[in-house]
Amino acid sequence: MRRITFTSESVDKCQLIFGKDLINSLPQSIRIVDSGFKKVYGKILKDEYLMPGGEHIKSIDRVFEIYQLVRTSKSKAITVIGGGSIIDLVGYASAGHTEIEKLFLFPTTTVSQIMPAVNGFGVNFEFVKDLLSSRGLPNKVFIDSSISYWSYSHLSRSDFLFPLLVALSFDKRLFKYLFNHLVSGSEVSAELWDDVIFSSVKAYLRGIEIGKSVVGGGIGRHIETASRLRAENQVSLIVGGMIELRLAEELGACDNRIVEDFFRSVKLLWKKDWTSRIDMSSLVDLIDQKGGVRISMPDGELDKTLFVEATVFERFVREKTWRGLESFV
């Protein structure tokens, strides 16, 4: 069993615990569980409070629902089991409630495992992505790579894109290793996946410590807001990453080779049922209202971020076709 201790700016500490069958040894607490995950692991979980997953769950009404749950329970600790959206919701509620003393996370998706919620939580308001935020830190995060490996091996190889994106953002050597493995066509075993998850988390935490965001995170959030939260989070993150990389490339701010390697990965792994079309007009309007957008650079670049003015972003979009995935790659 491997462990990492993350310390926030407030000197609060969070322990990340990696291992197998961790769901059988979670602390005693109120358990809030993604109902989709419950369908797969229903026999293991008992005495839980079910909530649906998805971005729509992150609302103030649901925050008050959690407060009611706490009021009727004797426990002062909460464990949330699910993906990033339900973790965001419960984390936000926990950070704002004085009677909740401990928060434990059990992320179940690849994205929520490799980008653990140690940098605060957000909920949506008036269709704006993460308009309300809190700076809470969980006490422990339990990461079982076999959970996300099942999704990778049974549902979608596209999950491999997210470790690639994290590595691109924070660890160029890790990116090169993952990319070479991908293009070689070699099988990803459960053991290798476990190492991928662990290495990606380490890279992500290093980025958080220096105040850097994952490539695509900024524009990805804008895509979700521009779509009134109808765009899927995973798709928005990848498309946001492609737009940020093309912007940085056109502005001469990053290494073209690593950009092209990532785009090649997208071509190999893009999930067929993901939409590749977004409302670029609404995205341009949103960024125009904000005066511009800050984008993140790949690891190894001189500057961590780059601010792109609204006029530059609009001209960049107008010069492209932007009709689908083929426009990005």
From TrEMBL:
Taking every annotated instance into account, which residue ranges of this chain make up the domain 3-dehydroquinate synthase N-terminal? 50-146
Pfam families, alphabetized: DHQ_synthase (PF01761)
Annotated InterPro entries: DHQS/DOIS_N (IPR030960)
What's this protein's name? 3-dehydroquinate synthase
